[in-house]
């Protein structure tokens, strides 16, 4: 058990880590900037919905348009926004994991 802690706390890193991780961190930052700018643009392009989630509360019937909302421009924008937000989450976690593994 102590040997495992010694490996985790050792200051020497493999050569491939010292060459690859700084490049990965730069790539992660670029991806984060691009996704952040994309989310800003996508949110500004989306229309403001007046109804919001009140149909779910009031029990109003769904129209053909609201059932096929995913195929419209607003549906695609929403889907791309969710994809960019998910990418930001994953890349941020990977960035900080790479920072913990190699703090150089």
Overview of this protein structure:
This protein has 104 residues and is mostly helical. The chain has a domain at 32-44 and 72-104. The protein has helices at residues 2-9, 15-45, 54-58, 64-67, 73-101. Helix 2 (15-45) packs antiparallel against helix 5. The longest helix has 31 residues, at 15-45. The radius of gyration is 22 Å and the shape is elongated. The model has no long low-confidence stretch (mean pLDDT 78).
- The number of distinct β-strands equals 0
Write the H/E string, N to C. Answer: HHHHH
Based on helices, strands and strand pairing, what is the structural class? Answer: mainly alpha
How many helices in DSSP terms? 5
Instruction: Give a short account of the largest sheet.
Output: none
Task: State the end-to-end CA separation.
Answer: 27 Å
Classify the helix fraction into a percent range: over 70%
Share in β-strands: under 5%
